[in-house]
Automatic annotation (TrEMBL), chain A:
<dbReference type="GO" id="GO:0006412">
    <property type="term" value="P:translation"/>
</dbReference>
<comment type="function">
    <text>Allows the formation of correctly charged Gln-tRNA(Gln) through the transamidation of misacylated Glu-tRNA(Gln) in organisms which lack glutaminyl-tRNA synthetase. The reaction takes place in the presence of glutamine and ATP through an activated gamma-phospho-Glu-tRNA(Gln).</text>
</comment>
<feature type="domain" description="Amidase">
    <location>
        <begin position="25"/>
        <end position="456"/>
    </location>
</feature>
<dbReference type="InterPro" id="IPR020556">
    <property type="entry name" value="Amidase_CS"/>
</dbReference>
<dbReference type="InterPro" id="IPR004412">
    <property type="entry name" value="GatA"/>
</dbReference>
<feature type="active site" description="Acyl-ester intermediate">
    <location>
        <position position="183"/>
    </location>
</feature>
<keyword id="KW-0436">Ligase</keyword>
UniProtKB/TrEMBL annotation, chain B:
<feature type="region of interest" description="Disordered">
    <location>
        <begin position="48"/>
        <end position="67"/>
    </location>
</feature>
<protein>
    <recommendedName>
        <fullName>Aspartyl/glutamyl-tRNA(Asn/Gln) amidotransferase subunit C</fullName>
    </recommendedName>
</protein>
<dbReference type="GO" id="GO:0006450">
    <property type="term" value="P:regulation of translational fidelity"/>
</dbReference>
<dbReference type="Pfam" id="PF02686">
    <property type="entry name" value="GatC"/>
</dbReference>
<dbReference type="InterPro" id="IPR003837">
    <property type="entry name" value="GatC"/>
</dbReference>
<dbReference type="InterPro" id="IPR036113">
    <property type="entry name" value="Asp/Glu-ADT_sf_sub_c"/>
</dbReference>
From TrEMBL, chain C:
<dbReference type="GO" id="GO:0005524">
    <property type="term" value="F:ATP binding"/>
</dbReference>
<keyword id="KW-0436">Ligase</keyword>
<dbReference type="GO" id="GO:0070681">
    <property type="term" value="P:glutaminyl-tRNAGln biosynthesis via transamidation"/>
</dbReference>
<dbReference type="Pfam" id="PF02934">
    <property type="entry name" value="GatB_N"/>
</dbReference>
<keyword id="KW-0067">ATP-binding</keyword>
<dbReference type="InterPro" id="IPR017959">
    <property type="entry name" value="Asn/Gln-tRNA_amidoTrfase_suB/E"/>
</dbReference>
<protein>
    <recommendedName>
        <fullName>Aspartyl/glutamyl-tRNA(Asn/Gln) amidotransferase subunit B</fullName>
        <ecNumber>6.3.5.-</ecNumber>
    </recommendedName>
</protein>
Amino acid sequence: MTVLQNLSIAKLQEGYKNKDFSVREVVDFFIERIEKHDNKINSFTTTTFDQARKLANMADEKIAKDGPDIIAGNPLLGIPLAYKDIYSTKGVKTTASARVLENYVPSFSSTVVSRLEDAEAISLGKLNCDAWAHGSSGENSDFGPTKNPWNLEYVPGGSSSGSAAAVASEFIIAATASDTGGSIRLPSSFCGVSGIKPTYGRVSRYGVVAMASSLDSMGLIASSVEDLARILEITAGKDFKDATSWDIEVASYSKELNEQVKELRIGIPAEYFGKGLSGVVKEKVDDAIKKFEEQGAQIQEVSLPHSEYAIPAYYIIMASEVSSNLARYDGIRFGNGRDAFGEETKRRIMLGTFSLSSGYKDEYYNKAQEVRRLITKDFTDAFEKVDMLIAPVSPTPPFKLREKTEDPLQMYLSDILTVSVNLAGVPALSLPCGFTQDELPIGLQLIGPKFSELKLFRAGYEYQQLTDWHKRKPQL
Amino acid sequence: MAVKDTLSEQSIAHVARLANLPLTIPEVPKYQEQLSGIINLVKKVDEASGSATEEKGTNADEVLRKDEPNSGTILSVDEAVKNGKRVENDLFVVPAVLEEV
Amino acid sequence: MKYQPIIGMEVHIELRTKTKMFCACPGFHFGTKPNTQTCPVCLGLPGALPVPNAQAVEWTQFLGTAFGCTLAKFSRFDRKNYFYPDLPKGYQISQYEYPLATYGSWTNGEGKKIGIRRIHLEEDTGKLSHTTINGERVTLVDFNRSGVPLAELVTEPDFSSSAEAKEFVQALQQIVRYLEISDADMEKGSMRLEANISVRVGQTTNDIRQKLPDYRVEVKNINSFRFLESAINYEIERQSEALERGEKLVQETRGYNEVKGITFSQRQKEEAHDYRYFPEPDIPSFEFSDEILKEIKSKLPELPESKRKRFETEYKISPSYSKILTETRELADFFEEAIKVGSVHGISPAKLANTLVNKKPNISKMLPAELIKLIKNAEEKGQISDEELEKVSLQSIEENSDVVESYKNGKESVLQFLVGQVMRKTKGRADPTKTAELLKKLLS
């Protein structure tokens, strides 16, 4: 069978239609690739290959019996993907890459997984991440760090490290992921793939190991905006099991991508292009801005004045919610005891407990919430002038393994360009926009007002028609 | 807590207790140093100024759920206890606690 | 020195909703097999999320309205963080800053006003039991009860005696049952009491809220109204004696030992009181429209107090009869239904009241119409005058001298034979109890 490269959902389904290959052949191809290369990358925590083969066979039977038009009614039929290991999967280990949950097998699936399964997607397994989603590099997994497939000495970014690395390595077409402070956008940028962090409340959090309840956004990583759009329209939408999910109509993102965004007003937040930004990152993002300008977009500078308080506010609120969300891990009903928590997790639990404790709550937690409102207002004000913002995702290109692990504060500062988005609950789309001289990927993010995913997709889709960054893949 | 202050060992021990985190004695100084550093970083929120109104509440109808049973979500007793480390007659077993009445 | 008791009550009421507070598991749990009624939410599994029960909210608002509270327009849930094996999430979803109802009152039989500070909604914990396994003492946890809705009512420290406190909780139980929001059964744990007791030097009961003592003792594990009285009385005495001795009393939690009739100190858990309350991020804060809040008042069933007064005026029955007839919703509703049916058949409310109060028929086993029928039958058979009764009784005595002889010799049971004779002669019109009394009198 021909080596499958640069695949997309559309390409695969076209191939199935035309009988270029069967679902089983495709799944076998991916499995073989994973078995050959993932020992280097370490993107999977659990593989479900037997089940995947069974589902592939069933898919082929369906296509044979009902004809290729059946694909229209089953939008993800025969599409191999995988889930960040914080998504509960019934009957399949769900560990959050943490020793505390190393043997936990849930009796129920998260809503996102159920929706994807109903759409006939085929899961190849669970993906590695920073334990409990605590981390920005992918080095904090209790089951070994994930490596950047572009260069194994470099970090893939986190916390959705396995998700981004597996997509970049072409082990899967797409992965579910989560973004609480940049955990989709950062690894997507470091691995040269595309990621969507939807509006808070756009996608159900039910069944996903909670990190910070008011910040967690359930998103996706794939090789193109088109694939993100096709999958988001399935996972998004009200879930009655999640009281924070919004009952707002989900657009047919994939069908409405092609509309060109005329008179698009794009804002450049001054605070995100300050002196901490590395030269090559600035260069590549500037190139992208030029591209948009060439297409007729109006570019203007805007300000997000409270940006400097974003990291402090984020870490207080996030840690406070983490300290409470992780209280259920007491080893009684499931999992190991609390002595199995890693260092970073213990730090965050203690920071959160401190911030909420009597005598400090006003100064820390309450003040952080105030700052959060101010930051949210910064975005609302900016969006009165522009349709979306464009910005880098990381102040630096990917860094080497162990480069930042000594000092937790160093690691926290990697999030400086991403956390405001989570505090405000707005959506952001990250796109590959270039490479360093050493062939390490660089990404940018488009940020929009709440529920503006379609607009972001359109702009991103247009950008990906004009550029090839997203098509490049590492040689493993 | 003043800026550039260090959390005392007692404070660390107190926070760890509240958080039900078993810290060994040698661990305390390490966390003391790291946490103090982090707290000095996050303390910056204090300097922020400005005002933004709090968001209104959501309509209660959209938040509350009808009082209707749903057999789809209930777990069988086996499913409920199967992940427990220690189970006896379908009950979870823990070391004896003094009854908090 | 005279010490003035200052008592406040905290009462937890388990709401009898069909489903639990934050999930769709069955709410009824008493006597169920362990861990057969759980789901990811009430078991605190990773990824589970709470969705609040609208009925529980409405019933809590009913309770608030019944006590004249202000119903909150804006409300929300908060997390109360602490660790305990019966608390699966390591926090309880409760309400701290914006409870559903605040600042109401209740007036007792003597006209004294008791302040109701707040009523809020929270979820119950699992149930613990204790045993020994292979010589090791262990605790067992059943999560069927975890997540069941609890309404918590807190009064101001306005009670000055155990009797006042008892009167209040009895009235509260009646109101809650009237509203049909809970069984409020102390034995089954669907109503739980906690008393906060302190004493201070003083002789008058004027303005209790001025200068409250700097401590209070929380007494838990009180399982009946009777024990409430004894626990409070014991505490008042214990505290007064301690102060007499010059001891300083501090904030503490004590349990009540009903066997010994004493309260005892429970292990101090200083840090346990830093609950680190913060708004529940998994549930948006919510607002009620003015229409909804107005509707609550109109939805509220008539309360015992109003019903009692109304029965007196509308049906012209005595206060004591009215009190008995309004003791339970069941009896009161039965009474009014019977009045409706009775009016067609010329049976007065007074007659019905009389019958219900004095004859105490088993109303759970009959319909109001059936009671009317019985009364009618009795009436149709005609009344029997005292003279006629005496006449017939004497007749029976005369005709049955041997039976009378037996009776006079100590065989008291034969009296029934004579009663039967009277009944036969009067064709059932005589009242058996009255007849027996009369015969006894005549034979003595």
